[in-house]
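Colleagues,

For the teaching module next term, I've prepared a clean inverse folding example: a structure given as tokens, and then the sequence designed for it. I'd like students to try predicting residues themselves before seeing the answer, so please don't circulate the second half yet.
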């Protein structure tokens, strides 16, 4: 069920990009137009970054809020079901059995992907500053982190594989033909959607089970 929530958030976030709330249209108009004042451009870019940041933080609250709901629901399902399910709860078992069960089944996947997304955020920001803002726009830190987080565990591994397989050939082709750097602004979220959909396939799930 969490995967469907993640897909919904990603669709909404991508829709925001398409309509220009933080996307290529404001990029072309605001970052490159000489007819727009510096103050107007700065305010609009700040708004775009704030929106992407807000979606990222809100997605964390939604996903873990749903994990909390599932954890509490699991407790009452066991309690109301009676034996043998109720034997998993106090006074037959320590409350930690329910906590550990909930962490493993409802929390762990997105706790791990959240850690990976934060690692990406810090690394991307560091590399971008080191190379004079060459690789990412400010809001891309949050869009990339959002995409990794919602891919879950171990989906983030598949996501990074897709990212590598798509971006490296495209970047090489674009650089060779047009002698320019290709922005992957619009690839972050679609690749995350693709990752979640592929992860639901039976043969992929069997592969995950091996590891």
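(Answer key — instructors only)
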């Amino acid at each position: 069920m969490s995967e469907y929530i993640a897909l919904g958030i990603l669709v909404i976030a991508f829709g925001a990009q398409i309509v220009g709330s933080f996307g290529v249209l404001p990029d072309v108009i605001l970052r490159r137009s000489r007819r727009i004042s510096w103050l107007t451009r700065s305010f609009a870019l700040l708004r775009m970054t704030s929106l992407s940041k807000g979606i990222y933080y809100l997605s964390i609250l939604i996903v873990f809020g749903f994990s909390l709901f599932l954890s509490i629901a699991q407790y009452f399902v066991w309690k109301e079901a009676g034996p043998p399910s109720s034997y998993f709860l106090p006074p037959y078992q320590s409350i930690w059995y329910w906590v550990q069960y909930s962490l493993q089944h409802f929390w762990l996947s997105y706790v791990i992907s959240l850690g990976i997304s934060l690692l990406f955020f810090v690394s991307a920001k560091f590399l971008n500053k080191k190379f004079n803002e060459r690789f990412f726009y400010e809001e891309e830190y949050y869009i990339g982190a959002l995409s990794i987080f919602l891919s879950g565990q171990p989906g983030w591994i598949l996501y990074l594989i897709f990212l590598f397989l798509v971006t490296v050939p495209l970047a090489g082709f674009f650089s060779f033909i047009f002698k320019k750097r290709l922005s992957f602004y619009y690839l972050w979220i679609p690749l995350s959607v693709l990752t979640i959909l592929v992860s639901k396939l039976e043969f992929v799930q069997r592969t995950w089970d091996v590891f």
